[in-house]
Structures are given as structure tokens and as C-alpha cells.
Amino acid sequence: MVAGRFVGQSVLRREDPRLVSGHGRYVDDVRVPGMVHAAFVRSHVARARIAALDVAAAERLPGVRAVYTARDLEPLIVGPLGATMYLSAPIPSPVALASGDVRYPGQPVALVLADSRYLAEDACELVRLDYDVATPVMDMETAAESEILVHPERGSNVVSQSRRWDDDLELAIRGAPYVVTRTFRQPRQSHTPMEPHGVVASWDRFDGELRIWCTSQRVHEVRATMGRVTGIPEQRIHVVQRDVGGAFGQKGAMRPEEIAVVLAACKAGVAVKWVEDRHENLVAGGHARSDRIAVTMGLDHEGGIIGAELDHLEDAGAYPSLGSVGGLVAMMFPGAYRMGGVNWSTRAVFTNSCGRAPYRGPWNIESLAREQIMDAAAREMGLDPVELRRRNVIARTDMPFTNASGMTYADIDPAAVLAETLRRFDYPEFLEEQSEQRGGGRRIGVGVSLFVEPTALGTGTMLGTEAAHVKVSLAGKVTVALGTSSHGQSIATTMAQIAADELGVDIEDVSVVDGETDITPIGGGTGGSRSGVIGGGATHRAAGHVRDKVLRVAAELMEAAPEDLETDRGRIQVRGTPTRSVSLAQVAHAAYVDTKLLPAGVEPGLEALVRYSTPAITFANACHICVVEILPSGQVEILRYVVVEDCGAMINPMVVHGQISGGVVQGIGGALYERFCYDEDGNPLTTTFMDYLIPTSTEVPFIEISHLNSPARGPGGYKGVGEGGAIGAVPAVRNAISDALGADVTDGVRPCDLFESTPLAGGSSR
Amino acid sequence: MHDGPGELSVTVEVNGQLIHGRVEPRLTLADWLRDDCLLTGTHLGCEHGVCGSCTVLLDDRAVRSCLLLCAQADRCSVTTVEGLASGPDELSPVQRAFMECHGLQCGFCTPGFVVSVTAFLAANPAPTDDEIAEALSGNLCRCTGYQGIIAAVRRAAEHMAEARGEVS
Amino acid sequence: MKPAPFRLHRPDRVAEAIELLSVYGDEAKVLAGGQSLMPLLALRLARFEELVDLNRIGELSGISFDGEELVIGAMTRQADVEVAPEVRKSAPLLARALRYVGHFQIRNRGTVGGSLAHADPAAELPAVAMVLGAVVDVVGPRGARQVPAEELFAERWTTVLDVDELLVSVRIPVMPAEAGFAVEEVARRHGDFAMAGVACALSSGHGRVDRARIALFGVGRTPLLCPLVAKEMEGSLLDELHPAALDELAALATADLDPPDDVHATGSYRRAVAAHLVGRALINSLEELRRA
């Protein structure tokens, strides 16, 4: 076969013609006959008892079909609402509508169904909601000790904690020639996919069929959740999604609002649509980051890392949709360096705020902390930060390598990635320029960040496997049905590339089907940088199974040996003798119709469903270098941004570049712009896009991206690449700013934090 | 001049076709296009005028359709993302460039970008990089990091110059 | 996020609009470009029973110039003002400031009159109108009157206009040939409202500054003129205005400011960066003036 005709090429996306011309099909584009529209009455306060909830006036408004409160929906609920894979995590099940009390601002309290969204919002204003407002828990630092409990029935604000501590290591760190201690924070962020959440649900009471159109990272999770919550047999729940307008982790689990809407559709017996608006999304759609980590690192005279201590604190909000990330923070902290050991304690706490949802590298604070403290240590030692990294970095020759926290890496070469990044960046030349420009009074700094990215996590959970169903039609055309689906990742294109190459057909002859529970294998969906690795692996193997059968059948038809055959553009031919060939359609005809032509022992049919399970985490690795200038106004301008990524074999380099660029810019947002704020009383302050600032085209640099390839062991050698950009950018930007200032930046920064006369910015010694 | 509290009559030329409707005064142009004209390519990403996903051409000028009442488009022409190409199976030069340069991932913001860029290049066929960045800054994208979008604007300018017979 | 119900009035003439405003008083709101009002309505942060849409009133749009005064109709779109040759020639500061107003899609719809009447203290145009000595024409049931821009802004989002009055045009006097201008601002991102900003217009004769107007925006409850700075500068020899003197003037301009903290910046930053911007604006407008 012709290897790599499509895989490895920047094949243009088949998704694009419909998307660029306005013919995408997002959940808000779904219209079902008789459909009514939902809107939510939400809590305006962070913590309160509901003293009165009176919906009578809302119900009387013309055009209103129903107004539901917890009392109406709770009888329909027979199982927990949380995400399947976190059902055993120590987190409370979300509630569809608040009952008795409210625990975060924006928590839904009542649901209106009306003939239009306009009317539904009118009715929401007529619902009388009185509270006995109580003091909320807003500060994660004091939450664990607070007498005020977010969830009184749990008896504590601690979600979970972990600790691994070796006293001898502590002594060694504390007694090291260089001991560096810093505390780093990152602001609370919102994922802000451009398409917010939404759902359309329709319950057919006569047939007992529930249909759901959704915007989700995992349609099979939606079905599993609604089966569990409603008790409706899963095979009678049909979940469909077409285009999804971004997610970044926020659409990994169903929101309580979405569940409430499905329940409302069941109760009302009409189709219901709800599309979250931006205000709702920012306030209550799921938050992220919002953690802090205290780090102490001990180094020897040569800069060797004797060990490190971590104290991680995570704000889980009121109803987190995932368990704590503390464990992964600890396990990934050593990154690409040798360390003598790591002591850690981690803790996640509840606060009366919007719950934490996984966001593109949810554990990212480990890289932020490690890469920033490496720079801080280098500054204290008077050593170049790059040199300190070189002295500690691991290389391909160290593989497999078990890091100081106990995580075993394979198939990465961080030393080579670091070297290649420095080469492309031309570090020595930059240092010369920098000293010249500083002489001229400019505040210019460079920041490096080197990290290992765990991809396709989830072995042993629902995320550990993925399946592809590859079938060849009578005409010799190929359909790939996948349990995973895309919310921007180009899966319809990349999986077609893999299948086309495996089967030796034109890519136009391959269709990819996803996002529909009835016709795709059970799957975990897209998230955790898994679809390329596991979905790609499944497609690769399923197509390979079919190819093997194609060759056996074709060999029989041509009276040749299977090993002498090759496939090319839908024909199977004897290698070197293209005149002796059969078409894939002829093979399919034998497989489905003229089955007597099949060789002995070959079953009829030309399809395969293969479930692929990753044996372990697949590790990718990258290095970012960022150059910033701090303007006199305190604004940060990014002058240069270089990325070298080792994500193994690339299915589609164009798509890989897109993933990296998008991630980097989200990281830039996290470092410089994005900050979801509450006041002390728990009132959200950044509730529109006028105050919650995501980067625009004028804030981003040109991102220079190049690659190394250390293939993974799985089929195709693919590694995940979805999250690294967002992980690596935050420390790269912060280190560059710290370098420009000569002082550590330990939190997200605004211009006012870097203005010449502010204490931090005035700390510059250069 | 005194329209009652009820519905208003509107006549809007949408993508070259005259459409008559009766609308509630508060109905936004974006909602009317999506719900009454079934032109769902115009997307609602914020409904307060920041994200630009709902950008359409109103009398050939790019505007936020979430910040316009449908009634205000009465007697105007509106071009949505669906109306930019020369035929149903065609892509406009800007649409083609977005595809060629990976100027989109999830595609939700894309119609707004495509419409904005179409208007921008009509006014400024050979923009500088700074002008491109500034022109794009009124549209938010969360997926691409803008790299592919910026490249797409350059590419579209080339396509359009070629179509005009200019050497690029 | 949908607006609450309202009645929409679409008058064709100014007189009809005034009549509507007289009838409905506080219950009515004028809808001009809608780029600020519509988000408030959609978020239901503001609600009005009656909206008076000015977009059909042709007489409110247009730019005219009689050699002494530039007259811009209230409903003239910002984008049209930005590129109008007579504006670029006679009021270049206005054209420059408009580049900072939102994004081009916003300026395609947003109007000059709407921006002045909205009176956002962080907006550029009110400050620019003040330093250019602009006067707005106001029409109401009691007749027409003129209000100098420096007396127009009463409070955050509030002008001195009565509820039944309509801002119909803005008049900008031609500046003398020897003049220099600057508008400087710092915003979180391009197109955002300024955390602090300054507009500056200087003119000179015989080597001395004869008129100096500096207005700050984004740092108070209204745009703020700096009369003390004007007083210090007017009459000064251009040659005396060396960098150290300008720094002192910048400090003077911002001495009494006490802007509040918010999520984007501390008050002290706004004040400090305002001083920095005043310094820069003075340098840039003096440079332009010297070239002229």
C-alpha cells in the first residue's frame, strides 16, 4: 500500500465548506415541531436560604407553558446527576434546581417554559424569589477552617486531600546549598467556548423515546447521565450532536441546567430548547484554574535538584464537575527534570462559587510552579535559567524514566526538544540584543517553559478505550463510525486520513460518522488530548482489520498471495503488476453477495469494529520560549513566541498547529487578561465579555511552531496535542515578564501590576 | 409614525431576496434572521456586541446583528454569511481562504469573521499586518489563537487581487 | 439575554421625536446607534416602555463645513466621520480619536451624537469634544439651545439635557493653523474602554501657547477638563515647555484625581497612568504644533 498518502499531510478539512458558509449545525440551529423555550431563574447571591419562591405571576403570563421548581423536577430524578467517571469521587452530585438553599451565585432555582426565549425571560422576572442571605465562603485559603459550610451535610469544606511526605527529604531540601521558596497563584478563569452550553430535548411518551440534541464533548456520557437520572432505559435515549462550538473541558459533563431542561421536556411532554447565554455561561457555566501552590526547591552547588516540596490548594467551587486535580499536579510536577524527590500535600476545598470544570490541562499549575521556580532558582544562583534546565533535563536515553513523584514516562526526549527550541530561537543572539535594549531603558525579558504533557489519560476509566466501526459498502466506499466526536478538533478529516491510508482508498471515499449514540460505538468523547491517540488508534486498527480481509479476498479473486498485493486508490493490485487488479467494490461484492468466492475460513461481510485500549498514558513534550516587552504603561507586548513540540507522528500538521496556537493563546489569556472576579460578598463582577477579557487578534504574537518526532508505541505513533499549548504558555509568559522585571510574577498580571511605579515593577534591579 | 405596542411590518432584502415579516419591536435582527429566515449561520456568541459572531452586512457595512432591532433593518439590505458566495456550491474568496489557512476549528465564530473580513477587504484590498490585526480585533475566536485567521485574510487578499487580474 | 418589551417609535423628523419625548418623558429612551443601549437592554440592566429610534431622521445625518465651523449631525455614523475629508482636515483629533472607539463594526453603527449623549466617562468623544471647544445643538419643546461640550456632562452616563430634549448636532470650531493635537489612552485590549485616557488640543501664536485644552477620560465620573494646566500653559513660550516642565504639568493635571478601583485597574494606577499619558499627549501635540 502507499503509506502516508494522507496521514502526515495538511489535508484541508472536510468540515470547513459547511462551517465557512454558515451551514454548520449547532444545537441552537435545531428546531423541532412544537418546541418551546426555556429560561432559568437564578440565584443572585452566593449563599442563602430560600425564604419564598412564588411562580404564580410567571405562570399567568401569556405564552408561558410551565414554570418548574425543584419540587416539580425532583420526583423525576432516580439517580445521581454527576459525570459518570466521577461518581465515586468525593464530590456532591449537582442538583438540577436548588431546593431549600442556594450555594453559588447563578445557581438555577426555577425553570420557565414559554413560546419564545423572550417570553421565558419576561416570566423569569415575575418569579418572586426571596432569600435569607447568609455569609458565603469565598476564600479558598480559609475555607477548610471556616465554620460556614458550603455543603452542611458533608460536615467539612474539604473536598479531598492527599499527602506524601518524607522527613529525610525535607531535611535534605531545607539543608540544601540553595533553597528557593515561592507561592504561585493563577486567577479563576472561564473556558468561554464561543458557543455556550445548550440542549434540545423531546420526550415521546407513547413510544417512551427520549431524544436529545446537545453540545457536548461526549454524547455517550449524555446518554449515560440521562439514563441514570431519569431511569429511562438507555436504549430508548437517542443523543445527537452535529457541530459543537468549542468546549475546552466545559462540556465534558452535563450541566445541571441541561439536565433540568431534559427533565422539563419529560414532564411537560413537549420539545424544549435551552441555549445558555453568555452571561449565564460566564457566571455559572463552569470555572477553572483558581488554585495556588507553594513550592520549596532545594538545589546543590551545581544546580542539581535535591528535591521539592509542594503545597497545592484548589478551589473546587460549590459543585465541581471533576474530582481534585491535586494528585496529577503532584505526579507531573517534576516535569522534564531529574529530582531527588518530591514531598507534597494537596487539598481541594468547596467555596460558594461556580464549580470547577476541567479546562485544557486542568493540572497546569504544576508546570507553572516548576518552570517559574526554576527561573527563580537560577536568578538566586546567578545562573542562566536555560543552563539550569540543561543541567537537570532528562533525555531519550533515560527512557523509560520514572520521575521523582513516581510517574513513568516513555518515548520523549526533552533534552532534544529544549536544544531544538533554543536553536530555533537563537538564544545567545537574543541575550546580546536584550542587553543592548535594556541599555536603552526598555524592559524586555525572555521566558522558557519546558514540560511533559500526559495525554490520553484515563486508563481504567471510561476514557481508557475508544472504538471505531469501519465498514466498506457494496460500492467500495468506507464509513468510519466513532464513539468519540469533535468540538473543533477536525476528527472527521483526520480519522478519514487514517482510514484512507490503511485501506488504500481516496479520502473522498471515506466518511466519518460521529456524535450520534444510536449508530456509533460507545466512546469517551474528546477531552484529555485523547481522540488522536485512542480514537486514532481504534480507527487505525479497525481499518487494518478490514484491510487484511480485503487482501485475503482479493488474493482469492486474483489467485495471488495476499502478501504480494498492494492497495491504491480503491484498487487492489499485484505489486509491480497494476494490470492485475480488482476494485474494492469487487471485493465487497464477494464479501456481501457472491460469498462463494470467499476463501475458506473467511466470514462474509467487510467491516470491523475494534475497540482500542491504551495501555498507559501517552507522553508528549514541548518547549516554549516567549519574549515580552513591558511598556511604560505596564502593558505587556509579546515580541516573539517559539514552540517546539514533540507530539509523535502527526496525522495532520495543519490541525496540530491549530491546536498548539489555540492553546498558547488561551495560556496568554490566563497570564495576562482573563480573571473571573467575585467581590467579598460573592457577587460576580466579570459577567460580560466587556469585563471578562479573552485575547483578541491585537494581543497575540505570531507563533513559530516546529516539531520533533519521538513516536509513541500505539498504532500510528500518535500522541495527544490538545492541551500542551495552554499548559506551556502561562509559565513562558510569566517567566518572560519576571525576567524583564527582575522580580517574580506570582499571579496573573494586569497593567496596573506592572506599571513603573508599582512595587512589583519597581523591584527591577536591571 | 406611531407604531402600536404590537407587531411591526418589515421588508428586508436578505441575501438578495425581499422578505416581508411582522415582528415584535424588541426582536433583534439576529434572532429574526435565525428564527424567521432560518439563516442559522449568523451565530449568537454574546448578545451584547462584543464577540462579533453575529456580524452581518447591513447595506454593505459590517454590523453586529445582535445590537440591531429587526425593525431597524426595515427597507435595508442584509447580507449574511450564507449570502457571500456567488452560488450555492461556491465559496467566496474569503471563505475559501479560511478553509485553506485553517482559519477555523469549531467554526462557531467563523461566520462573523468571514463577514467582517469581507467588508474589511472591500474597503482595504491590500492591508498591512497591523491593519489586519486591528480589523480582526472586533471578533473573538477561542480555538485558533488567530494564527490561521490572520493568514486567511492575507490569502483572501491575494485571491481577490488575482481575480481582479492584479499580480500578487 | 433578550430585551424586555418596549414600544418602538420611528419618527421621520426631529419635531416628531421631540413630541414623543415630551409625551413619554422618563418612560422614553432615545435609540441612536444602539451600540451602548442595546447591550443594556439585552442584559435587562435598563428598561424603557418607549424607544424613540432616530435612525429614520435623515436631517440628523451629515457633515457640513462653512469655513469656520464643522457641523456634524448627531446621527452621523462614527465610521463616516472617521474618514470624512473635512473632518480629517478641520478636526483631525476627532478622526484620530475615533480609531479608539470600539471596533469598525461598532463605528459603522455608532453615532457621534449617541456617544456624546450617552456620556460614558471612559469614552473618547466627550473628552475630544471638550478640548475642541465643541458646542452641541439641542432641540426641545421649549426651543433650541446650544450647550458647550464642557458644560454637557453632568454625571456618569448623564448629560444636562432634559428628558424631552434631543442632541441634534455638534459644532466644532476650526482650530488655528498653528495647532497640535493628541489623544492617548491605555485600555486592557485594543478597542476596550480606556482605563485612563487624555485628549489634548494646543494652539499657538508668536511662539507662545495661546490656547491649551486637556481633558481626561476614564478617571472620573465625567470627562475632566484640566483648567489649571490650561492656565499654566497659556501664554508660555513654546521654548519654555521642556520635558521637566511637561512632567510638572502632567502632575498638576492629575493631582486631584481620585479614581476608584475596579477589576481592570486600581485607582492609583489610573491616576498614575493618566499623568504619564498627559505627559505623552503634551509632547506629541507640541511636536505637531511646532511642525505646523
Structure characterization notes:
The complex is a heterotrimer of chains A (766), B (168) and C (292). Helices cover 29% and strands 26% of the residues of chain A. In chain A, α11 crosses α12 (385-392) and α15 packs parallel to α16. Chain A folds into 3 domains: 16-22 and 459-613, Aldehyde Oxidoreductase, domain 4; 31-134 and 194-246 and 251-284, Aldehyde Oxidoreductase, domain 3, CATH 3.90.1170; 374-454 and 617-762, Aldehyde oxidase/xanthine dehydrogenase, molybdopterin binding domain (Aldehyde Oxidoreductase, domain 4), CATH 3.30.365. Chain A is α+β, with helices and mostly antiparallel strands. Chain B has 168 residues and is an alpha+beta fold. Chain B has 2 domains: 8-83, Ubiquitin-like (UB roll) (Roll), CATH 3.10.20; 93-163, [2Fe-2S]-binding domain (DNA polymerase, domain 1). Helices cover 33% and strands 15% of the residues of chain B. Chain B is built from 5 helices and 5 strands, in the order ββαβββαααα. In chain B, α2 (93-100) packs across α5 (147-163). The longest helix of chain B has 17 residues, at 147-163. The model of chain B has no long low-confidence stretch (mean pLDDT 95). Chain C is an alpha+beta fold. In chain C, a hairpin with a 2-residue loop joins β12 (194-205) and β13. Chain C folds into 3 domains: 7-53, Uridine Diphospho-n-acetylenolpyruvylglucosamine Reductase, domain 2 (2-Layer Sandwich); 58-173, Uridine Diphospho-n-acetylenolpyruvylglucosamine Reductase, domain 3 (2-Layer Sandwich), CATH 3.30.465.10; 179-287, 2-Layer Sandwich (Enolase-like, domain 1). The longest helix of chain C has 25 residues, at 267-291. The interface between A and B is large, with 57 and 57 residues.
